[in-house]
Amino acid sequence: MKQDRQDELLPLVDENGNITGAATRGECHNGSMMMHPVVHLHVFNSKGELYLQKRPEWKDIQPGKWDTAVGGHIDLGEHVEQALFREAGEELGIEGFTPEALPQYVFRSERECEMVYPYKTVYDKDIRPSEETSGGRFWNMDEIRESIGKDILTPNFEQEFKKLFG
């Protein structure tokens, strides 16, 4: 069965996003609370619906739940927007979009600590989910709001959605 690479090397950052070191994915996800940077891309269509990806059952964090359209770690030595375009291509096969930066923030769970760099875009071309996801679909905003708190969506997505889109 496919699984996340626990030896993947990730940058560690401080509250301002400055790189302070490096650690493996396994070390960052084991409850150590080492802050590592990630990108999120919220993909809207022109009807105002938001695309969510379904996380595969093999993921080490929140398997099987619905989540941000694109989300991924920033590699050591990679710039934020490089990671954004790389992850969008890897996860959904999308390219040629114009990202709009949203306010960055720190997300903490009982297992990890992330510096999140969220973006949004409007995209009406084909979305081709890869094997990194278990597919996805567009949701209307009411459908998302009705699913909050029902263990359908990831806690990180729920928190970010409420903060950014009400």
Structure description:
The chain is of the alpha+beta class. The protein has helices spanning 25-28, 80-92, 141-147, 155-165, and strands spanning 9-13, 19-24, 35-44, 50-54, 66-68, 70-73, 100-101, 105-108, 113-122, 136-139. Strands 3, 4, 5, 6, 7, 8, 9 and 10 form an eight-stranded mixed beta sheet that branches. Strands 1-2 form a two-stranded antiparallel sheet.
Percentage of residues in DSSP E strands: 25-35%
Determine and state the CATH class: Alpha Beta
**How many helices in DSSP terms?**
4
CATH topology: Nucleoside Triphosphate Pyrophosphohydrolase
What's the total count of β strands? 10
Q: Taking Cα atoms only, what radius of gyration do you get, to the nearest Å? A: 15 Å
3D shape? globular
Characterize this entry briefly.
The chain has 166 residues and is of the alpha+beta class. The chain contains 4 helices and 10 strands; from the N terminus they run ββαββββαββββαα. The strands form 2 sheets. Strands 3, 4, 5, 6, 7, 8, 9 and 10 form an 8-stranded mixed sheet that branches. It has a two-stranded antiparallel ribbon with strand order 1-2.
Task: Map the helices and strands.
Elements: E1 9-13, E2 19-24, H1 25-28, E3 35-44, E4 50-54, E5 66-68, E6 70-73, H2 80-92, E7 100-101, E8 105-108, E9 113-122, E10 136-139, H3 141-147, H4 155-165
Parallel strand pairs: 3-9
Antiparallel strand pairs: 1-2, 3-4, 3-6, 4-5, 4-10, 7-9, 8-9
